[in-house]
Amino acid sequence: MVAFFLIAAVVAAAVSPSEAKSAEAKPAPTVTVTVTATVTVTAPPPVAVKAPEPSPSPTQETAPQTAQVPDMTGKSGDLLVEALKTAGFADGYKATSFHDVSGQGRTVLLLTNWKICEQDPKNKAVPVTEKISVGVVKFGETCP
Q: Could you give the CA distance from residue 132 to residue 93 in angstroms, rounded to a whole number?
């Protein structure tokens, strides 16, 4: 569009006033103006897309990760939780199920106050998703 106005201005300047009078008598020459626009589009570089890993087929099962469960009988509950985390369980506390085996039905809260009497499983490699059942009594009490 700007090019059109520039060409029109150049044509108008080229015609002198004396020619303007004679131009009135003569028909004005036809001027054809072609405007060409060039548009450049820059696309961002292609992004590498990582192909998804194939999921196992129904006949191909993935083996669950296993970890060795240590025998912590006689130790405090918090030491078992730490040992399970070290062995490979994501959360040692969530991997355990503590219960009072004294017969009093108490809730097990502060693990440092509880002694492990029984544990299932122990000294065995199990899937890290398996729950460890732990029977405890308060320190100072005897295991049944």
A: 10
Can you tell me the distance from the alpha carbon of 144 to that of 139, in angstroms, rounded to the nearest whole number?
A: 13
H helix runs in 15-66, sequence order: 17-25
Say which residues have a Cβ less than 8 Å from residue 8's Cβ, sequence separation at least 6: 33
Tell me the residue length of the chain. 144
- Best CA proximity match to 70, nearest among 55, 58, 88: 88
DSSP-based helix, strand, coil % in the chain, nearest 5: 25, 20, 55
Sole residue written with tokens 């730490």 = 82
2-37 residue pLDDT tens: 554 545 555 555 555 555 455 456 677 777 777 777
Distance CA 137, CA 109 (A): 12
Q: Which value, to the nearest 10 degrees, does the dihedral of the CA atoms of residues 111, 114, 116, 117 take?
A: -150
3-state secondary structure of 70: coil
Residue pLDDT, tens place only, 42-74: 767 777 777 777 766 565 566 579 999 999 999
Share of the chain above pLDDT 90, in %: 53
